[in-house]
Amino acid sequence: xxxxxxxxxxxxxxxxxxxxxxxxxxxxxxxxxxxxxxxxxxxxxxxxxxxxxxxxxxxxxxxxxxxxxxxxxxxxxxxxxxxxxxxxxxxxxxxxxxxxxxxxxxxxxxxxxxxxxxxxxxxxxxxxxxxxxxxxxxxxxxxxxxxxxxxxxxxxxxxxxxxxxxxxxxxxxxxxxxxxxxxxxxxxxxxxxxxxxxxxxxxxxxxxxxxxxxxxxxxxxxxxxxxxxxxxxxxxxxxxxxxxxxxxxxxxxxxxxxxxxxxxxxxxxxxxxxxxxxxxxxxxxxxxxxxxxxxxxxxxxxxxxxxxxxxxxxxxxxxxxxxxxxxxxxxxxxxxxxxxxxxxxxxxxxxxxxxxxxxxxxxxxxxxxxxxxxxxxxxxxxxxxxxxxxxxxxxxxxxxxxxxxxxxxxxxxxxxxxxxxxxxxxxxxxxxxxxxxxxxxxxxxxxxxxxxxxxxxxxxxxxxxxxxxxxxxxxxxxxxxxxxxxxxxxxxxxxxxxxxxxxxxxxxxxxxxxxxxxxxxxxxxxxxxxxxxxxxxxxxxxxxxxxxxxxxxxxxxxxxxxxxxxxxxxxxxxxxxxxxxxxxxxxxxxxxxxxxxxxxxxxxxxxxxxxxxxxxxxxxxxxxxxxxxxxxxxxxxxxxxxxxxxxxxxxxxxxxxxxxxxxxxxxxxxxxxxxxxxxxxxxxxxxxxxxxxxxxxxxxxxxxxxxxxxxxxxxxxxxxxxxxxxxxxxxxxxxxxxxxxxxxxxxxxxxxxxxxx
Length: 757
Prior knowledge:
This protein is an alpha+beta fold. Helix content is 32%, strand content 22%. A seven-stranded mixed β-sheet has the order 10-11-8-18-15-16-17. Strands 13-21-20-19-14 form a five-stranded mixed β-sheet. A hairpin with an 8-residue loop joins strand 10 and strand 11. Helix 3 (71-83) packs parallel to helix 6 and helix 6 crosses helix 7. It is globular, with a radius of gyration of 27 Å.
């Protein structure tokens, strides 16, 4: 089967004039799917985003994964708002794989431009990237982009369907459409006729798709901006919600694996004779390292227990591969050498930082470091596959259903349209489910099951030790001040692995080229008005695979940048809030968020000691990521005996544009603070001889309930389009805590996790 993306690019190579003409047009519509939506039970599909049933239910086709972030509720509310549906009648169904559901926003936002750049090059690059992704992109949930990506399509889908329902009613009543109104799932005419959506759906589906529709003004919103209950809440409470690990098709078998302890290694030789004799065992096999994963031996058996027992009986000799020589010391030695020698790719430059630094009355220099981190989602890696009669069904938790389909099809040697991906809820993702190694592995195992469905389930230890890790990174800062203490120069060089080239290689088989924004995001793309600045990153090659981790480069660059900003404020003998404010005079939204957080936290007011008599102090951090602006103030104390760091209170202010559902935003900020504190206080993956040393929550701990601070969230009211929410709350918390520790005892911690001697 020849893919359309092949035809598109092949044609582009021979028809430059057509490409230029195509580039001048807006991205193609995102309302109609390539194939009609499947319908059942009196349903009618009005476009690619919704179906209306004869029973008056409105089924929203959901193209994004739900992993706790509330995306399903937010997106359904956006469509229902413009449709004027009765919220009680709204249902969800996972969308089929189709190009109209491709994620445009994440890739456009991944272009390496500064947010303040309003030049034509950025506009053209964004325009062409959006058009390209519409045709050859990926269905993806990531980059805090779900609401942003579908804000317009969901509204247009709802408004278009509303117009079609009105036309159907007008035709049925022989009246003018302009004389009809819609409210809560009912179309009404001034003369008194009324019809529910379900009564009009079949006729409405025959109406042409409107060319252009008027969207509501914010003052007209009934659902957007309201704290609607999560649409999947009931299923999670009563146990009917189905996560990937819950897949249970008839005749299900279970697979357990043992993977090479060295990340990326493979099986050299194996002997499964002893395992084959054990009860319940169906098959013992070796599995290749697929899509950047690690080679393994697997056992298919009747139950998880039988599979786990048998796989431990397999004798295996491993080929440990190039990562076998890797250790933590070697990683940081290589990063430190690069920091001393490299100049890096410049992501942002203003003025002449080198000249300004030479003329500075005083300079300040500091180095920072962050470790590898694992994702540690509570639902361990799993995937269920059935391969029978030349076709496959995949039940899985994934952030990239079309890439999961491609991976399974390639392993099974069948066309992609022979693979049916059943998308289930995710028990956490954080970027780990953007990978498809586990899908490919599960497909390779199920291929040997004689047509039965097989669930492959990893242990927690395997999940931790065979991850795609948040990169380790080091950074060097230098600030220059004039004789009055004003900042005149800012230099920042960071070094570490690049994620995007690795992902392109292991998933698409493509070589990575050019700058990777994720390496320097959080460093170069910030609002501070540095008079002279150079911010750069040097990509370092290391054998441990890296991947997207919640807030990606922002997760460590914010710690570096906001901690050094505090150091600069101290060197200038200025209050940390006032120092930041002096560099935000042309950025009123950022300035407001900063000052609001300080005000709500009682910045400058004395803090009482805690119950044990330990003194407290506050620290602040401001950071922009995924389009949203977040400031956090942390109140911190240190135990006199254990030197344990205790965070008592976090005040979090966010400006994310239009707040679709304030409850969900608050939940995500609370979640982000807990997630970020876990990394700030505990998170560290270490490697010895290519093997990850952490295994389970005893040595890779999550924040415990007793450690969790009081979290107060304030959402700035805004009429701007919505921006990201799932990740922006993570980056500021580590520097806010580190800055509070400096205010408390004068000790500057420049490495994560934060540990006092």
